[in-house]
């Protein structure tokens, strides 16, 4: 396997900045790809050891392009996550004034994060989506668009200047990125972990989603992401992308996954990995009755009942 990481490029994306915060990135060749799909496909094809892609932002939730790519195709697994605070700069060719801007570009996920600023300052500008924010900057450099919303750090890379900086509609906006590789044994639990799965219902029935969520709720497992995605099998057919607190080696998480495997048409395990938002000592204790010790005690009690030793 080549010692390289694929990432959503070109150079100068927020994805690249977040990737470089990983210590192991210093020992890998970092290769930009034109889309999330091509970066993940590079891993599936064995062209890269792992791919680093955005998966969620605090303004719009899950990034559907990434979720859909993880739902479909050969299975992949998440090994790490990184949170990056996001503010945008309006990048233009030197000499461009605000009044000159008729077209703006950025990645589709950027639009909800700057739409109010855009409505106030450039109400007549036409929005054009790009494969990434850095690609939008490249297109401005080539003269295809007048301005791009991107990281201020991308200006020098593309010979542009930041006409405005610190642009954001929501304070403390963050994007979550994940390092994705081919399936293998998950990392050991840290005490502050997250488990990601995709669930397909066996059939459509009243309370179907409640049944899925009940497997987590009865075991005291908090959910951190719940997003439905169409399966492609027709209107009303959805699968559910879920992030849950805990690690597959935790008894409560393992039993929840076993329960889901029994009642779901399909369960795709996307990995258990360290959380980026908290440290192990900051995680709240499991709810009463859901710790590993209590699961083991309950199992031992059943065994004693079976032996007539209760």
What does this structure look like?
This protein has 310 residues and is α/β, with parallel strands linked by helices. Helices cover 27% and strands 31% of the residues. It is built from nine helices and 15 strands. The chain has helices at 14-19, 36-44, 64-71, 111-121, 133-141, 154-157, 208-217, 251-263, 292-306; strands spanning 4-8, 29-33, 50-57, 61-62, 77-85, 88-92, 103-106, 126-129, 147-150, 161-167, 174-181, 193-201, 223-230, 238-245, 264-274. The strands form three sheets. Strands 1, 2, 3, 4, 5 and 11 form a six-stranded mixed beta sheet that branches. The longest helix has 15 residues, at 292-306. It is elongated. The termini are far apart. The model has no long low-confidence stretch (mean pLDDT 94).
What is the secondary structure topology, with strand pairs?
Layout: E1 4-8, H1 14-19, E2 29-33, H2 36-44, E3 50-57, E4 61-62, H3 64-71, E5 77-85, E6 88-92, E7 103-106, H4 111-121, E8 126-129, H5 133-141, E9 147-150, H6 154-157, E10 161-167, E11 174-181, E12 193-201, H7 208-217, E13 223-230, E14 238-245, H8 251-263, E15 264-274, H9 292-306
